[in-house]
Design brief:
Elements lengths: L13 E6 L13 H18 L11 E11 L8 E9 L5 E10 L5 E13 L4 E2 L4 H4 L5
Length: 141
């Protein structure tokens, strides 16, 4: 079976720290895969907030997560503080990828990497909308 390979950007636009709580741990005594996705979702909310947006208001449009891919690199454990780095890349007419990396903050050990494909959405018209130019300009060099 082919393995997912995720290319990371040269730099990330955003970073935030999140502590692993006991409810994030599974029976194997490490970070549960579903908890990782929930933590990435929290980081995504913080990413948009750092830009002055919410997931329901990016220049008047909302976002929808259309797909996700992730690659585990190492275990993570209760009490560790994880650094979540994120940036937007690979823009198309209606969306982009939010590429992210998770590392254990103290050692720098990479825990996971991934990307979420997002689509901009006009909730009033109930349809996909073009990427707001003001948003994409923040990331396109």
């Amino acid at each position: 079976m082919a393995r997912i390979q995720i290319e990371l950007p040269a730099r990330f636009a955003f970073s935030t720290a999140i502590t692993i709580y006991i409810n994030h741990i599974n029976y194997g005594h490490h970070l549960d895969n579903s908890a990782l996705l929930a933590l990435v979702s929290e980081a995504r909310v913080r990413f948009f907030k750092s830009l002055g947006y919410s997931e329901l208001d990016v220049e008047g449009l909302g976002i929808i997560v259309a797909d996700a891919a992730l690659q585990y690199r190492s275990e993570a454990f209760h009490g560790e503080v994880l650094a979540f780095e994120m940036t937007a890349s690979d823009f198309n007419k209606y969306g982009c990828d939010l590429v992210w990396r998770v590392s254990e903050q103290e050692s720098g050990r990479e825990v996971a990497r991934g990307k979420h494909g997002i689509v901009f959405f006009d909730y009033t018209a109930r349809k996909a909308a073009q990427v707001p130019a003001a948003f994409s300009r923040r990331f396109v060099e």
